[in-house]
């Protein structure tokens, strides 16, 4: 089968070839191929570790959720939009909290969008037009291995034909694998992104004299050189990663970078875009945005959606012990959340829906295995640049999809709640 | 089966002006009296009430990445709570509404159809996902063509067969409805920071001009025989002096004819009707535009009426959005895409005291009043000019000079000098306003079963608590406004969805899409499409929207 779509990272490569006999995929990177390789699955639905039928597990899950005063519904970045939509409806019906993986990774970027907007472009536009690409706090060579080939570093575009016509800059705290592929590497001291962006803004706006001889470990001459590259670009793109959103400054770093882009657009064309991680973390924000108005950290306990990241993001809710049950879909908070948040998860009934066992499985009261979108199930996912792709079903399975499981839970919850 | 008794019907398409009539509904359609068993009908007593077709909004931005980015960028917009979760969905939004809120608010106002006016072809599936999330109304989306490199190539090669094939292919793949053109050539120029200024500017990098893009697309659209005409957002939007470009663009329709409908629809003309040379001396070009539109029988327009208060500018006209961001210093989102088009989003508020905003407000009304009612549809270009929920305000304003005088006294006096609004005595009749909001937009879109109450029409009906025989719309404007805000009944496909202004049932409408692939030799363009998709970031085999992915698709085949 051709044009198979990968459901691993935010690049969502859609040019795979699947050998149905060997059950192997060609063309994808190691990360993507590993998703298609056979691996350990959750065998059957379980309650307290004992195998049960889907119906029994779903009945129990619905009962837990319907009886909870304020359940937390978290995860969603590695499932399809169809499932996410039901998840949002379920959170609304339950008066619970909807939150998704972005709240612990790229959400500061969303806060920056609220302050300044997002002057961006699709990956295809970057591929076809960008003569300068800057990776800032992002290391696609290891996190999005085919990004460079398909969309950015060495992608063959319509107007920018090849690597020779494109300048690649990496700004990072250490020489990453991506930095080795760049024309220019700017190594900065950890936590100095904001200061460096400010220095670039000053230089580009003609105020270089206010910039000291060194900023964040970078010599002024190098910053001037970088500013010149940016000014001379016909079409430039900053692609930023968690190095920017999760270091000192967080949303303010992105906000400052957007202001830099606004400035550059006075004289040439520049765009900025986040390098999103999971294959549908974008959908996990877009779907609730159109259904209930916000991307993440949404509380329905008053019967209408409220957005407040400092209160309603999963970690905050758990830290405050402000939820009495949790539904975790396509995610592993136990492995990634701070200890204090996990501590509360241990004390409340947790329902997990996931194809694969992980740390969260170990403490879940109800575990419901699901089909893998892009391999065993079809559904819609949004690539990191918000371009929708319909991921495919390429092999048969007896596992239920997230969408079906959640729909069944919703049906029962509606009955229980009246 | 439904029986609407003794209503006072206004149905411009069928030349019915305030006649007492009964209407019968069966299987979602309006039928003859003898087709129903009266004893089995649910009866609505509409005595002394106005009965009209459900409203048709022909140009709004209700779905897709633009409005959703707007929601993300503007949480302050989402903090107005409209409905608490219960029997119906929780809904929020001040001007930018959530998808369920859009459906509910249209329904409460007696509107039953709305078209998303700009669908970037690469994001078509996103648009459809959001359309599917909107309850209550029928809908469709117009894919954009005016800056697509392959469109330019077909025109450069002067290959009409190829262009037709491309248009038919793209509409089928995006499950779109017609041909939208936004700032032709200008968005491509924006990719390197520029724009085009006149219809004869060459598009950078291509041997085509906006004039050629518009003319060739009209020709392709007409030869394919699509239900709707080319839907044009003109060049130079938002620029003082732009009314001349608009008139020139309108005149491009000369030489084309179609017995059923216009051959060119120019949209949200208010934003393209400015005289003067800068915002310091800007004035109204509405009267000049009205003269030209009235003199032609193959062009229609819609108003793009601004409403004082909050709004959000969002268009495919990316260079304009950047100018607006610079002008007002507001937040700015932008999206350049492959299958080339662009987009921009900027929050804005219209203030009565601001001379420019007052001017825009007056120009919108001038267009609505001066253009023949058979050629101008009512829109706010939601959410660019403001919320669609204020259509009743515009309707009342068009019908009452007295109301206009009252509103004029509250706005910046600059409008008195710069526009002719104060001296316009025209008061549109209820019949005309019903036409501008129902039968005309349906006709412009080529929807034969919408916007009227004749036999065979879709049973999309609004009943308002107003007796047209006893209401002086000129004097009783407050009553008219209030009445149109909240329908007594809204009936969608024969089902009562609103009663007494409150939602009573949630339904999901259809998504219309046009299949004209039999009218063109698609193979004529496939080698080029394959070539271009080598450079796009999505495999050709993965591009497009399948009918089965849409909740309730309604295919309209052009043969």
Describe it for me?
The complex is a heterodimer of chains A (418) and B (559). Chain A has 418 residues and is α/β, with parallel strands linked by helices. Chain A contains 19 helices and 21 strands. Chain B is an alpha/beta fold. Chain B has 17 helices and 26 strands. In chain B, strand 12, helix 8 and strand 13 form a beta-alpha-beta unit. In chain B, the strands form seven sheets. In chain B, strands 1, 2, 3, 4, 5, 21, 22, 23 and 24 form a nine-stranded mixed beta sheet that branches. Chain B has a five-stranded parallel beta sheet with strand order 11-12-13-16-20. Strand 7 of chain A pairs parallel with strand 18 of chain B, so a sheet runs across the interface.
Quick summary:
Chain A has 19 helices and 21 strands. With 418 residues, chain A is of the alpha/beta class. In chain A, the strands form five sheets. Chain A has a nine-stranded mixed sheet with strand order 4-3-19-18-17-5-6-15-16. Chain A has a five-stranded parallel sheet with strand order 10-9-8-13-14.
Question: Topology, pairings included?
Answer:
The complex is a heterodimer of chains A (418) and B (559).
Chain A (H helix, E strand, L loop, with lengths): L16 E3 L4 E3 L3 H7 L9 E2 L2 E2 L2 H14 L3 E5 L5 H14 L2 E4 L6 H10 L2 E3 L1 H7 L2 E5 L3 H4 L3 H4 L16 E6 L4 H4 L3 E4 L5 H12 L9 E2 L2 E2 H13 L2 E6 L1 H4 L5 H14 L4 E6 L8 H10 L5 E2 L6 E2 L1 H4 L1 H6 L5 E5 L3 H4 L2 H9 L2 E5 L4 H5 L2 E4 L9 E4 L5 E4 L10 H16 L1
Parallel strand pairs in A: 5-6, 5-17, 8-9, 8-13, 9-10, 13-14, 17-18, 18-19
Antiparallel strand pairs in A: 1-2, 3-4, 3-19, 6-15, 11-12, 15-16, 20-21
Helix pairs in contact in A: 2-19, 3-13, 3-19, 4-12, 9-10, 9-12
Chain B lengths: L1 E10 L4 E11 L2 E3 L10 E4 L4 E4 L1 E6 L4 H9 L7 E3 L7 E2 L6 H10 L2 E9 L4 H10 L4 E6 L5 H8 L3 H15 L5 E3 L3 H5 L19 H15 L5 E4 L9 H9 L12 E3 L7 E2 L7 E2 L1 H10 L3 E4 L6 E7 L2 H11 L4 E4 L7 E7 L4 H16 L5 E2 L13 H9 L1 H8 L5 H5 L11 H16 L15 E4 L12 H9 L3 E4 L2 E5 L2 E2 L7 E5 L10 H8 L19 E5 L2
Parallel strand pairs in B: 1-4, 1-5, 6-9, 9-10, 11-12, 12-13, 13-16, 16-20, 25-26
Antiparallel strand pairs in B: 1-2, 2-3, 5-21, 7-8, 14-15, 17-19, 18-19, 21-22, 22-23, 23-24
Helix pairs in contact in B: 4-5, 5-7, 8-9, 9-11, 12-16
């Amino acid at each position: 089968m051709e044009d198979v779509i990968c459901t691993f990272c935010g690049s969502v490569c859609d040019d795979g070839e699947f050998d149905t006999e060997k059950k192997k995929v060609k063309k994808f990177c190691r990360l993507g191929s590993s998703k298609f390789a056979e691996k350990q699955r959750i065998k059957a639905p379980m309650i307290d570790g004992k195998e049960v039928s889907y119906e029994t597990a779903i009945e129990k899950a619905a009962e837990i959720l319907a009886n909870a005063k304020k359940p937390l519904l978290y995860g969603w970045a590695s499932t399809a939009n169809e499932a996410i939509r039901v998840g949002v409806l379920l959170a609304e019906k339950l008066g619970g909290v909807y939150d998704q993986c972005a709240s612990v990774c790229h959400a500061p970027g969303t806060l920056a969008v609220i302050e300044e907007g997002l002057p961006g472009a699709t990956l295809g536009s970057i591929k076809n037009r960008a003569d300068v690409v800057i990776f800032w706090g992002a290391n696609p060579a290891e996190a999005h291995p085919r990004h460079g080939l398909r969309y950015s570093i060495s992608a063959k575009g319509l107007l920018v034909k090849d690597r020779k016509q494109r300048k690649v800059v990496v700004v990072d705290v250490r020489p990453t694998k991506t930095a080795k592929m760049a024309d220019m590497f700017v190594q900065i001291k950890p936590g100095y992104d904001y200061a460096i962006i400010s220095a670039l803004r000053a230089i580009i706006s003609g105020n270089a004299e206010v910039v000291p001889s060194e900023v964040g470990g970078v010599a002024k001459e190098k910053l001037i050189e970088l500013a010149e590259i940016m000014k001379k670009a016909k079409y430039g793109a900053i692609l930023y990663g968690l190095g920017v959103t999760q270091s000192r400054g967080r949303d303010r770093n992105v906000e400052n970078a957007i202001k830099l882009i606004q400035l550059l657009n006075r004289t040439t064309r520049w765009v900025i875009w986040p390098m999103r991680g999971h294959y549908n973390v974008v959908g996990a924000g877009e779907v609730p945005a159109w259904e209930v108005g916000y991307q993440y950290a949404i509380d329905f306990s008053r019967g209408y959606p409220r957005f407040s990241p400092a209160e309603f993001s999963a970690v905050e809710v758990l830290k405050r012990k402000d939820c009495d049950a949790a539904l975790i879909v396509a995610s592993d908070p136990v492995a990634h959340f701070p200890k204090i948040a996990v501590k509360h998860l241990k004390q409340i009934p947790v329902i997990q829906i996931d194809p694969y066992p992980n740390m969260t499985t170990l403490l879940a009261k109800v575990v419901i295995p699901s089909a893998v979108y892009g391999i065993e199930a079809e559904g819609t996912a949004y690539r990191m640049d918000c371009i929708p792709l319909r991921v495919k079903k390429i092999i048969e399975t007896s596992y239920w999809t997230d969408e079906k499981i959640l729909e069944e839970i919703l049906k029962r919850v509606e009955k229980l709640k009246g | 089966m439904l029986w609407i008794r003794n209503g006072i019907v206004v149905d411009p398409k069928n030349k019915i002006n305030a006649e007492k009539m009964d209407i019968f509904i069966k299987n979602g359609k309006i039928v003859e009296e003898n087709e129903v068993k009266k004893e089995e009908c649910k009866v609505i007593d509409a005595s002394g009430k106005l009965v009209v077709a459900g409203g048709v909004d022909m140009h709004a931005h209700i779905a897709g990445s633009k409005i959703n980015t707007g929601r993300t960028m503007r949480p302050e917009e989402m903090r107005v709570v409209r409905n608490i979760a219960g029997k119906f969905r929780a809904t929020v939004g001040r001007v930018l509404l959530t998808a369920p809120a859009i459906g509910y608010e249209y329904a409460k106002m007696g509107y039953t159809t709305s078209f998303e006016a700009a669908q970037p072809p690469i994001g078509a599936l996103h648009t459809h996902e959001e359309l599917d999330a909107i309850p209550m109304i029928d809908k469709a989306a117009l894919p954009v063509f005016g800056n697509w490199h392959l469109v330019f190539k077909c025109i450069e090669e002067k290959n009409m067969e190829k262009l037709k094939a491309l248009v038919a292919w793209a509409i089928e793949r995006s499950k779109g409805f017609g041909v939208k053109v936004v700032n032709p050539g200008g968005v491509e120029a924006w990719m390197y920071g520029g724009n085009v200024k006149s219809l004869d500017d060459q598009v950078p990098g291509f041997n085509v001009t906006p004039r050629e893009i518009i003319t060739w697309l009209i020709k392709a659209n007409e030869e394919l025989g699509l239900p709707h005409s080319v839907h044009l957002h003109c060049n130079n939007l938002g620029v003082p002096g732009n009314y001349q470009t608009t008139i020139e663009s309108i005149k491009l329709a000369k030489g084309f004819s179609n017995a059923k409908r216009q051959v060119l629809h120019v949209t949200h003309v208010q934003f393209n009707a400015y005289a003067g040379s800068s915002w310091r001396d800007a004035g109204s070009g509405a009267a000049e535009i009205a003269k030209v539109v009235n003199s032609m029988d193959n062009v229609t327009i819609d108003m793009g009426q601004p409403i004082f208060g909050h709004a959000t500018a969002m268009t495919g006209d990316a260079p304009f959005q950047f100018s607006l961001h610079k002008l007002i210093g507001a937040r700015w989102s932008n999206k350049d895409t492959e299958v080339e088009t662009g987009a921009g989003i900027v929050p804005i508020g219209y203030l009565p005291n601001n001379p420019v905003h007052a001017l825009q407000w007056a120009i919108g009304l001038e267009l609505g009043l001066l253009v023949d009612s058979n050629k101008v549809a009512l829109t706010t270009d939601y959410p660019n000019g403001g919320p669609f929920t204020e259509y009743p305000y515009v309707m009342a304003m068009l019908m009452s000079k007295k109301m206009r005088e009252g509103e004029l006294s509250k706005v910046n006096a600059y409008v008195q000098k710069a526009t002719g609004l104060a001296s316009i005595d025209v008061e549109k009749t209820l019949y005309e306003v019903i036409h501008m909001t129902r039968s005309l937009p349906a006709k412009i879109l080529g929807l034969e079963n919408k916007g009227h109450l004749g036999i065979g029409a879709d049973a999309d009906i609004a009943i308002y608590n107003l007796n047209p025989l006893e209401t002086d719309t000129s004097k009783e404007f407050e009553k008219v406004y209030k009445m149109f805000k909240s329908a007594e009944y809204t009936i969608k496909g024969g089902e009562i969805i609103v009663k007494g202004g409150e939602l009573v049932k949630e339904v999901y409408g259809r998504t219309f899409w046009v299949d004209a692939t039999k009218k063109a030799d698609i193979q004529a363009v496939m080698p080029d499409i394959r070539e271009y998709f080598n450079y796009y970031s999505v495999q050709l085999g993965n591009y497009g929207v399948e009918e089965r992915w849409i909740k309730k698709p309604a295919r309209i085949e052009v043969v």
